[in-house]
Design a protein that fits this description.
Length: about 325
């Protein structure tokens, strides 16, 4: 049974395609017959300036066949491991196959993406045809029914669009510091990966989501710790002020903890509060003259800050 097939005739000049059409059709038929009737597992078949490479993927019970210009043998062999990796990552398509050929559309984008990255494989001006097939490995002499699934360019465009959107989201994920936003972006990436049935990426997303959630919980705990330390430091400073005015009291320890608290706010997406409380911390340590009358009010606002960390997410 032929699961997946792609010919790159559209990459060849029109006059070459017409000349090769009947010739290659005969070659394809002969190769299939040779493979089906071989009990030793053919690896290479040379036919003039063409070479056929047959790769037996035992883990899936399928054979991968490439037909290419002999000059391209080295290039083809370089990317065969990439093809095998993709097939193994999508092993469920073969093991759970129920006769619905459309499930193999997912291979279109992934395999063509490899071809796209290795454009030199398709050499313009040469009389050749590159062909890739993935077929069920049958018993000698039993070729079985053939269901040809030709790659349709609209599917390629669709998966390309998904891939571009995914790359855009991945860039945003790297640029974003706020953990809640990271989780939100990751959920969008995960939706795309589910549409593309990218099982390795789906699993990777689970691990990344877990990591972000752990970091978010840790951030909340650190926020609470630094805020508590800030308030305790303020109260200690006031208790040991020995009658000094609050404005003249040393709040260095409170400054350090409040600054750390405000820094953590960036990681939950509250840049506004981060800026506000850093300004409070700056007033504690620098004590600008224009803040002397307002200094006690700043202290009160800090002491009144909520210790419910969830309130800072609203």
């Amino acid at each position: 049974m032929l699961f997946w097939e792609k010919s790159f005739e559209d990459q060849i000049e029109p006059f070459q395609t017409e000349m090769l059409s009947s010739f290659l059709s005969a070659i394809n038929h002969n190769i299939k017959e040779m493979i089906a009737n071989s009990s030793k597992g053919i690896k290479n078949i040379e036919m003039g300036n063409l070479i056929v490479i047959v790769t037996d993927i035992k883990s899936l019970g399928v054979e991968m066949v490439t037909i290419s210009d002999s000059d391209n043998e080295k290039n083809i062999r370089k990317i065969i491991p990439e093809f095998i990796k993709i097939l193994n990552e999508n092993a469920s398509l073969f093991k759970d196959f129920d006769g619905n050929m459309s499930v193999f559309e997912i291979l279109d984008f992934k395999i063509l993406q490899i071809i796209e990255k290795n454009k030199k494989i398709l050499k313009k001006g040469k009389v050749l045809k590159e062909k890739l097939e993935i077929k069920e490995k049958g018993l000698p002499g039993q070729e079985g029914n053939k269901f040809v699934h030709e790659v349709k360019h609209p599917h390629y465009d669709k998966y390309t669009k998904f891939d571009e959107e995914r790359k855009f989201l991945e860039d945003r994920l790297k640029e974003t510091a706020a953990l809640p936003k990271k989780i939100e972006i990751l959920n969008s990436i995960d939706q795309i990966d589910h549409k593309l049935k990218e099982k390795p990426n789906i699993e990777k997303n689970k691990q990344r989501r877990k990591k972000f959630q752990v970091e978010l919980q840790s951030t909340k705990e650190r926020m609470k710790y630094f805020l508590e330390q800030t308030k305790q430091a303020i109260n200690r400073s006031i208790q040991h002020s020995k009658g000094k005015l609050i404005y003249e009291t040393d709040f260095k320890d409170a400054y350090l903890n409040l600054y750390s608290f405000s820094s953590k706010l960036k990681f939950i997406g509250r840049d506004d509060l981060c800026t506000k409380y850093r300004e409070f911390a700056k007033i504690l340590i620098e004590k600008p003259e224009d803040q002397e009358r307002n200094f006690s009010n700043v202290i009160k606002k800090i002491l009144d800050l909520s210790e419910d960390m969830e309130s800072y997410f609203k």
